[in-house]
UniProtKB/TrEMBL annotation:
This is AttM/AiiB family protein. Belongs to the metallo-beta-lactamase superfamily. The keyword Zinc applies. It holds the Pfam family Lactamase_B. The lineage of its organism: Bacteria, Pseudomonadati, Bacteroidota, Flavobacteriia, Flavobacteriales.
Length: 287
């Protein structure tokens, strides 16, 4: 009987040690992601005053209203390189009076160049390994040609549109503003920029044919989701309003649903890039 008791005790000890060994631990990918030092910087790419805010809905929802929108661009520093997300309005606006489009729809202005602003964080155009736009509307590609040595991460559908006939004469686009980008990496969906899950480009078409958003996982702040032009201001998001000038309204609505689900799953803080309040309240750097 005593021998049986000793055997049972030994078996219990072994089982307990085995349970300790099999204790659930974070995956290697999660551990690596938490340890990576990533920083997200915001910069001012100008302002857009929507003089005819009704353009930002399918009907006359905002008829007679106007709104000033931010036009930020963002820099992500990662141990494996630097990504630039958007570049703001055309730089020929710097030092000049605000410009109003011929149809009176928009008034645009920009105070400073991209090179000057990046210099404040000790970055030159040559330091930027990757450049990506949420989409290729002129207010996001205005300073792109400074980065001709960077790899351009673009959805294949967006790149084909940029080199096709449909873009010609369309006032929302300025192909000359990104014509120097020759190191093209065509994407066909989501893309893990640095291969460790910390900086993810999500394909969210609708606003343009190859519109995309960006999630950055920061060690202290957590997940931050840059919206591109999924929305232009908070009321758009609250009411899931789609601008009438989007490339595809049905696709936009599908992407909105996917965007919100993705944000929820990742407990991500959403930054609406054109929302003046979101832009002003966001710190100059997040880590």
């Amino acid at each position: 009987m005593k021998q049986l008791f000793i055997i049972a005790t030994l078996l219990c000890f072994v089982a307990c040690k085995d349970a300790e060994t099999k204790e659930v631990k974070p995956s290697e990918a999660e551990t690596e992601q938490e340890s990576v030092k990533v920083e997200l910087y915001k910069f001012d790419g100008g302002q857009v005053t929507a003089n005819k805010l009704s353009l930002f809905s399918e009907g006359d929802k905002y008829k007679g209203e106007s709104k000033t929108l931010a036009d930020g661009f963002y820099l992500i520093k990662h141990p494996k390189g630097i990504l630039l997300w958007d570049t703001g309005l055309p730089e020929n606006l710097v030092g000049n009076e605000p410009y109003t489009t011929p149809d009176g729809g928009f008034t645009i202005t920009r105070k400073d160049s991209i090179v000057n602003q990046l210099a404040t964080v000790n970055v030159t155009p040559e330091d930027v390994n990757y450049i990506a736009f949420s989409h290729i509307h002129f207010d996001h590609t205005g300073a792109a040609n400074h980065f001709k040595n960077s790899e351009w991460l673009v959805q294949d559908s967006e790149y084909k549109f940029a080199n096709g006939d449909s873009i010609k004469g369309n006032s929302f686009y300025a192909p000359a503003s990104f014509s120097e980008l020759k190191k093209v990496v065509q994407l066909s969906g989501d893309h893990d920029v640095f291969g460790d899950g910390t900086v993810i480009i999500k394909n969210m078409p609708g606003h343009t044919i190859g519109h995309q958003v960006l999630m950055v996982s920061l060690p202290e702040t957590g997940n931050v989701l840059l919206s591109g032009d999924m929305y232009h201001f908070e009321q758009n998001r609250e009411e899931s309003v789609v601008p009438q000038f989007n490339y595809s309204i049905p696709q936009s609505k599908k992407s909105i649903a996917e965007f919100e689900e993705f944000a929820k799953q990742n407990n991500a803080k959403v930054i609406i890039q054109h929302d003046a309040k979101d832009f002003s309240e966001m710190p100059a750097v997040l880590n």
